[in-house]
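BACKBONE STRUCTURE TOKENS:
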Amino acid sequence: MDKGSVRAGERIDYLDAVRGLAILLMIFVNFIAQYGVIPAWTKHATGDGFTYVDGIAPMFVFIMGISGALSFTRRRETTGLRKTVLHALRRNGLLFFCGTIGTVLLYAAEGILEWNIFQTLAVAGVVALPFFFIKSSRIRIIAALALMVLYQLALTFFLAGALFQKEPAIPFLPSFVQSLALATIVIFGSGLDEWIQRGRTGAAAGIACAVFCGVGLGLSSLIGPNRPMGSITYLFFGLAMAAGFLLLFYLAARWLRLKRVPLLSTLGRNPLVIFMIASVFTKVLNVLLPENASALAVLSVAVALEAFCIAAARILEWKGVTIKL
């Protein structure tokens, strides 16, 4: 076995760290989103543009693709293909159900129904699932890139004008289509499973970060990065950011002998449960803290919310509880 390679069933802490960072950022930006005192660079870009906030969802689904492929292979070898597929479908179905119930409980009283991250993950997971059957990681990577190009062509010649309007004819269809775009990142992430198993995470992450950043910058003058539409430059910048953090935490694990990234690895073990807890408290705190609150007040409450969620994650870890939705 090569130095740095991963054994079957072994938990990879630097993947938990990237996942934990994504959740940490999600909690923060979701809370501060409604406050005008917070600068635009720490919110989603409006229209064409890209901020670090726009890269959070791609970062999470990128790790979802890597861990999903590793888990799929392990389960297929131990329980068989049929049970593995049924497990994946049940998991994604539960994610979609929890997301739907969550939006009803949190927003129905205001007459609002939203498509949240849970539904996005569920759709992306189901769309990406058939590609996990492909044993060649290289083919999965090629397929993901091809699908990104096809999606951009469809976006340019049909989807942008037909779906992405201020008041779409079918309310959730644009969000569903955006989930399809993010599914391509899941598929690409799944193609890195062999690199990680062989201890070549640094090379894979470094190459992906450099290539996607360079190509994204080259294309951005022709095709702007647009998160709501899921444009190809948005996908490339999101992948570059995700691969960059993967490389960072991998190098910390290898060179600094840092087995776990404090706090982030803890959050990464139960990310979706912590996100559910944070969503409830965000809703309550947004009601209690007025929209014209000072920047200091907003940031103070945001930090307190983060600390509470980290404490909850630490308790779950201490109890040995890992909840996989």
Notes: The mean pLDDT is 89. Residues 13-318 form one domain. Residues 5 and 217 are 33 Å apart (CA to CA).
